[in-house]
Amino acid sequence: MEAAVDEAVSQIKEFSRFEELKADPRFKEPKTEKEMRRKWKELQSAPDHTNVLEMWKEAGVEPIELAKKRGLKLPGDERPPLDPEVAKQLSALREPRNVQAIHLNPLRRSAEHGVPVCDLQLRTYSIRNLEFFADFAMRAAYYLGLPAKGPIPLPRITERWTVPRANFVFKKSQENFERITMRRLIQIQDGHPEVVQAWLAFLAKHQYYGVGMKANVFQFEALGEQHEGPEIVGKVDTSKQDPKMMKKVEELLNQDQFKKAFAQARAEKAPEVSA
Amino acid sequence: MSQFRAKRLDIGCFVNVRNLRDHNKRKVFAQFEPERQALRYIIHNTTLPQRVCAQAQLQLSQMHCYTRFTQVKNRCIMGGKGRGIMSDFRMGRFQFRLNALSGNIPGVRKASW
Question: Does the CB of A165 have a partner CB in chain B at under 8 Å?
Fold first, then answer.
């Protein structure tokens, strides 16, 4: 009973303090735009008044303590208590296997034939990022159903440079710099080319910072007449030429000067044919 | 050659007239490289008549000197120096040292072995 009375009294006190605050010119609402701008400037220039909490504290009100005293909670904080039976059942549930697998080494599938289909090389200067991403790539390969070997550590590439310390002369005093590139190889075996492409695209989508990727993809085709590559027409295979260049060649040969040259060449050749 | 120069500054590195010129040369070279290759292809193509090859040779020799790769020169992007550039970083040695020490070049650190 007494506690309730005390609280009521304190609430009244707070309210009266609020009335006082309202009377304070600092808490008056600005009436004109000019006034508003001035007030905004004032607020900006006063670093202690940048947030509301500080302002209340300045005015002698402790909102956090007050909230604790009154037993107030932020909205969304409270949860209805679980039924003990349900809680028991929930705690008995195990995590899904694939969630458990995150804490273990990546799973891998065994290759039936061992035919290499794709060599993915990962490179970095900072090994942690690489280790993480290699792990990610292995897991992705497993869940796409690709048998993957690796990550195989390849020899590190060490580059060193020696430069004079000074900007001019003084060759005797020099400094060494180095850059070490760490590499890992992940080999996919027996995968379907489209799945391999999907895997590579997935890795490219989820690229990790500080890790470079390079993939060699191998294609196999039957010997003999079942040729799947670009069709070879005539004697010259232009498919290996740069398409940009070939387009330009066509353009050039359609120019007036070249047409004239062709005409002249034909005119020179014609008498020989008739003779 | 001012006809190749961009109307607005289009590089973000150290700017002086020599760096600008080199930048222009690189751009012009990249733009005209297919044409040069096409002309070379016509010249070397033995199935075409001799006259056509001669015409291509003539055109190739008349192209602007900026379209040649030999015109491109590595320059320091931090200070514009033209000699002793480390081509891995496109910087002079002193600029390389400063940038490496301040950690601006990925993976490069002081070596001790």
Answer: yes
Q: Domains in chain A, ordered, with CATH?
A: 2-69 (no CATH), 99-217 (3.30.70.600)
Distance CA B73, CA A204 (A): 34
Domain ranges in chain B with CATH number 1.10.287.1480 = 11-73
> How large is the average pLDDT for residues A196-206?
95
Q: Provide Rg for chain B, Cα atoms.
A: 20
Q: With beta carbons less than 8 A apart as the criterion, state whether A160 and A177 touch.
A: yes
pLDDT tens per residue, range A91-122:
889 888 888 999 999 999 999 998 999 999 99
Q: Among residues B67, B68, B97, B89, which one has the least CA distance to residue B13?
A: B89
Does residue A241 sit at the B interface (CB-CB below 8 Å)? Answer: yes
pLDDT digits (tens, 9 = 90+) for A114-133: 899 999 999 999 999 999 99
Prior bond to A47 cis, omega within 30? Answer: no
| Interchain CB contact of B103 with A (< 8 Å) | no
Distance between CA atoms of B55 and A215, rounded to whole angstroms? 43
What CA–CA distances, in Å, run from A5 to A1, A2, A10, A15, A68? Answer: 6, 5, 9, 15, 18
**DSSP 8-class letter at A101:** G
Q: Buried (b) or exposed (e) across B75-108, using 16+ Cβ within 10 A?
A: bbbbbbbeeebeeebebbbbbbbeebeeeebeeb
Q: Angle at CA A233, nearest 5°, toward A228 and A236?
A: 115
Residue A178 has φ and ψ, to the nearest 5°, of: -145, 160
Nearest to A258 among B50, B55, B108 (CB): B55
ipTM, two decimals: 0.81
The H or E element spanning position A151 is strand A148-164
CATH code for the part of the protein at B11-73 = 1.10.287.1480
Interchain pair A248, B106: CB under 8 A: no
Tokens of B101: 């020490």
Partner residues linked to A185 by β-bridges: A121, A152
